[in-house]
Amino acid sequence: MNMNTFGSVHYNAIGPWLKERFGERIVKLSLDGGFTCPNRDGTAGTGGCIFCSSSGSGDFAGTIPQQMKLLSRKWPEARYIAYFQNHTNTYAPAERLRALWDDALSHPNVAGLAIATRPDCLPEPVLDLLSEYNEKTFLWVELGLQTIHEPTERLINRCYPLEVYDRAVRELSRRGVRYVTHLILGLPGENTEDMISSARYVTEKHPFGIKLHMLHVMKDAPLAAMYPDRCPLMSLDEYVNLICGILEQTPPDVTIHRLTGDAPGALLIAPEWTRNKHAVLNAIQQEFKRRGTYQGFGL
What pTM, to 2 d.p., does this model score? Predict the structure, then answer.
């Protein structure tokens, strides 16, 4: 294994992975399926996770025609993954999910599905449905974990314990369904070792992929009330060093779906440096070059 394994970047980015898998560019359509979450409607809690905006982390989501029109300007020849993004996209009866997924797959340029959800919203009928669709289309499920640490879990109002995530991983893996785990770096009260241990816990299970990004403080999220007194944030240099350190310990077959996040400019309070996504990614690349390392280097 060496840097050239990953082409122009130093990690197993999902974009090139999909292009190799399908033989053409594949782009995600960020879709709003009209869902809510169990920790918003009172089933598990209220108010949602403290970092989550009122849109449920789907500020750029829309309908399939809207997203295709928008993305086709930049990638006119691309095919698409229908990505049900905001809130909890398995928080509904299986019949409703089937209708949504069938509608998405009816578009001729849609090559597969990505379903963002919570590990506590995968009952047996939904797991069976995912298994069924996994047999007939390209599919992955995204699990919002964010941290493995119980004090942080309580603070961010996640409203489920770590063993629920573990069960979801076992059940998806048993059915052969790919899954991607989300982690947020810089959550209040966590130090570098806490964040590294969360990443290690997740990647040792060899998921299909991971998503990492810096904590955003947004105006319409509960976290805004904690900033800045109870919510110190990393600098760009600190974040870049952390990302490179995590990826050096990540198995090379794990696909990397995100290393920095997008937040609507009008809502973002901090950190300011996350506004320039390309600068963050370039800084990560430059740090890997400086170190002479790459994903999996330290294993």
Answer: 0.94
